[in-house]
Amino acid sequence: MALPPLAAAASSQADRLYSHCCYCSMQCGMDLIRADNEIGWEIKPSQLFPVATGRLCQKGLNALGHVVHPDRLLSPMRRVAPDEHARASWQSASWDHALDDIAARMKAIQQQYGNDAVSVFGGGSLTNEVCYLLGKFARAALRTKHIDYNGRYCMSSAAAAQLRAFGADRGLNAALDEIPKAKYVILAGTNIAECQPTMVPYLLEAKKQGAIIVTIDPRRTMTSKIADIHINLQPGFDSVFASGLMHVILEEGLHDSRYVEAHTSGFADVREAVRAFSPDNVSHYTGIPKEVIRTVARGFAQAETGLIFTARGLEQQVNGVEHTLSYINLCLVTGKIGRPGCGFGPITGQANGQGGREHGQKADQLPGYRLIEDPAARRHVASVWGIDPDELPGKGVSAYELYGKILDGEIKAMIVLGSNPLVSSPNSARVAEALQKLELLVIIDMFATETADYAHWLLPSSSFLEAEGTLTNLEGRVFHRPKAFETPGEALEDYKIIGMLAEKLGRGRYAAYASPEAIFDELRLASAGGIADYGGMSYTRLKEEKGLFWPCPSPDHPGTPRMFENGAFLHADGRAKLHPITPMEPAETTDRDYPFILTTGRLGNHYLSGAQTRRTAALLKKAAVPVAEIHPHAAERILLRPGDRLRLTTRRGSLVFDVKVTADIHPTSVFVPFHWGGEHSINLLTNDALSPISRMPEFKVCAVRLERVGQEA
Ligand SMILES: Nc1nc2c(c(=O)[nH]1)N[C@H]1C(S)=C(S)[C@@H](COP(=O)(O)OP(=O)(O)OC[C@H]3O[C@@H](n4cnc5c(=O)[nH]c(N)nc54)[C@H](O)[C@@H]3O)O[C@H]1N2
Ligand SMILES: Nc1nc2c(c(=O)[nH]1)N[C@H]1C(S)=C(S)[C@@H](COP(=O)(O)OP(=O)(O)OC[C@H]3O[C@@H](n4cnc5c(=O)[nH]c(N)nc54)[C@H](O)[C@@H]3O)O[C@H]1N2
Ligand code: SF4
Ligand SMILES: [Mo]
């Protein structure tokens, strides 16, 4: 297949175009420059965007790779043998035919089983406009309560913790340029050097200014290489460790009692909760020397300024909300929030992982971070959408639970837009079983992903270079990304596909827009007065001011780079809530049959399910297959020999991986990256236990057995 045409109307004259990277939440600016290579263009770091000015990591530099990949879907594709769930075979069709068929089947399913029999699964890499539209399409056009998205697997524990503690969930409370002002930085369960590489210079600058950096991770990662202190923590123990820090701070009176008194509630309960977590006890549970616990506690509390960043390492657990709250408590009792060089931040993951959770693609939310069960929120959004509030459905179930509803027979159809859930969901054999049961699965994507093996229709979407829109980066900075190229073949921008489908469903008035800007202008109104208030933003302002931080309630409001200044929290009493945390065990603990802990995560050169980066030759070359990391002690215990491979067996299944023995990992643990499908897909083994609060799956901890697989086998 020929490369998709990249000669765009918009670009026909230009030799230089501007965009933003499609991958992580840093959202680095990039220049596309005409080049004498087989693509005709190359990517260079841009000087324009004031976030990671002049820098791009390997993923960003190679982001054209997937855009021009011959696998791009160039027309709607219909499964030829819809009843056969062997590998699909596809036949191209016209848009008209595709959408007529999809709409007819959806209507029939809804007539027979009710509106909620149709579901939508969205993503956090999409623009704010598409996220907003998808939520509106589900509620107002399909009239189903069943919409959720991949951010449930990502930011949901952090979001729940921030909402509980602060009354608002904005990734970082402060802009990145606060980092160099911090004198103490704790990085817990976050591998910034591989996952947000262009953020590293901010940390190095802080270090240059005298900051102490602490990393807390079961692996000595590239990030811990820049740390002064590395805490080698067994997965699942963050609340225990953080309780130890809090114990020392309170025992030694290092907290900021004035701040606690003026701006928080719940202090006495926290004091009580950490009473038993003396350095001796915590050292006993975690193996971390008690002097180290005291050093970090004193260091952080006594530093004039300090920041704590967390990420999925501790959040993707059944206790992820509690772990996150334990770290938030430390910022609050030491008064390290809402002033220069201070703050808390669960580092957002996907390109628009922040905006993706604000505009209503989450089962319980409406735009502006409003709750779907709040009558005032329903009235507000219904008035913007021009429908009766009573017509809005209620709250649906979380991402992973949607597959349970399919297995139960309640959901019969699903539209997936911007996710590859077969690879990225926990216990994925169960997800495959659910997908197989669907009467209709429609995938809107650039590629026939692993999930597409189960689809009835594939609809070709735009890449990041082919769609205009706004995104919100990890800081809460909303910015405009222009359209650089035209879509190849018959591929279309997501907003157009959604609009056309709504039209075929007879609900076109709820999804017809002339441009992404028209959607944004409505999103602004829908968000106005909510927590994530975009009310005062416009495309003109976003372009001229190179982005604006929410909340930005009025056209003359400058935006809010630093949240919670002077202790202004968003709870009704104006205070932040401290939460007493009782550390709990993971859903699965080790035993004789499953004596090790499996934890999963990322590599610097791949992105999520790998749909894009495995289609980028320069990146695939650096990591063609996943490799399991184990400690020399573990290798010794299973009598691993050079050249052996490693069998991992959990209660869900068994897979064989290449293995690397390294002293950088905790002796109890094995780490496997999740960027591959099929026999390389670690999510066939992960645990689908969910946090009772956030419904986040336990991607980071499950019990596993390790066995050597010799060459003789
Ligand atoms: N290269 C690359 N960059 C990415 C992505 C990608 O796929 N590839 N994805 C993006 C997205 S969507 C996200 S959400 C972010 C994720 O960014 P991160 O959360 O930083 O990435 P992970 O590798 O999932 O996990 C981080 C670390 O947590 C550690 N960990 C595991 N268990 C525990 C625990 O119990 N406690 C502690 N303290 N640490 C633990 C792991 O060893 C790992 O080093 O990255 C974004 N950036
Ligand atoms: N074991 C384990 N599993 C995990 C995690 C973990 O740490 N461990 N992390 C979880 C996390 S944090 C995340 S965020 C999830 C994410 O996992 P997924 O939701 O599977 O994310 P992606 O692989 O980015 O899938 C995005 C899909 O959308 C397509 N796409 C990209 N841009 C567009 C667009 O503009 N329009 C349309 N229509 N399609 C587009 C891509 O081609 C791709 O197929 O994985 C989760 N799964
Ligand atoms: S740091 Fe993130 S946004 Fe920047 S180039 Fe790398 S992947 Fe893209
Ligand atoms: Mo994520």
UniProtKB/TrEMBL annotation:
<dbReference type="Pfam" id="PF01568">
    <property type="entry name" value="Molydop_binding"/>
</dbReference>
<dbReference type="InterPro" id="IPR006963">
    <property type="entry name" value="Mopterin_OxRdtase_4Fe-4S_dom"/>
</dbReference>
<dbReference type="GO" id="GO:0043546">
    <property type="term" value="F:molybdopterin cofactor binding"/>
</dbReference>
<dbReference type="GO" id="GO:0016020">
    <property type="term" value="C:membrane"/>
</dbReference>
<protein>
    <submittedName>
        <fullName>Molybdopterin oxidoreductase family protein</fullName>
    </submittedName>
</protein>
<keyword id="KW-0411">Iron-sulfur</keyword>
<dbReference type="GO" id="GO:0003954">
    <property type="term" value="F:NADH dehydrogenase activity"/>
</dbReference>
<dbReference type="InterPro" id="IPR050123">
    <property type="entry name" value="Prok_molybdopt-oxidoreductase"/>
</dbReference>
<keyword id="KW-0004">4Fe-4S</keyword>
<dbReference type="InterPro" id="IPR009010">
    <property type="entry name" value="Asp_de-COase-like_dom_sf"/>
</dbReference>
<keyword id="KW-0479">Metal-binding</keyword>
<dbReference type="GO" id="GO:0046872">
    <property type="term" value="F:metal ion binding"/>
</dbReference>
<dbReference type="InterPro" id="IPR006657">
    <property type="entry name" value="MoPterin_dinucl-bd_dom"/>
</dbReference>
<dbReference type="GO" id="GO:0051539">
    <property type="term" value="F:4 iron, 4 sulfur cluster binding"/>
</dbReference>
<dbReference type="Pfam" id="PF04879">
    <property type="entry name" value="Molybdop_Fe4S4"/>
</dbReference>
<dbReference type="InterPro" id="IPR006656">
    <property type="entry name" value="Mopterin_OxRdtase"/>
</dbReference>
<keyword id="KW-0408">Iron</keyword>
<dbReference type="Pfam" id="PF00384">
    <property type="entry name" value="Molybdopterin"/>
</dbReference>
<dbReference type="GO" id="GO:0022904">
    <property type="term" value="P:respiratory electron transport chain"/>
</dbReference>
<feature type="domain" description="4Fe-4S Mo/W bis-MGD-type">
    <location>
        <begin position="14"/>
        <end position="69"/>
    </location>
</feature>
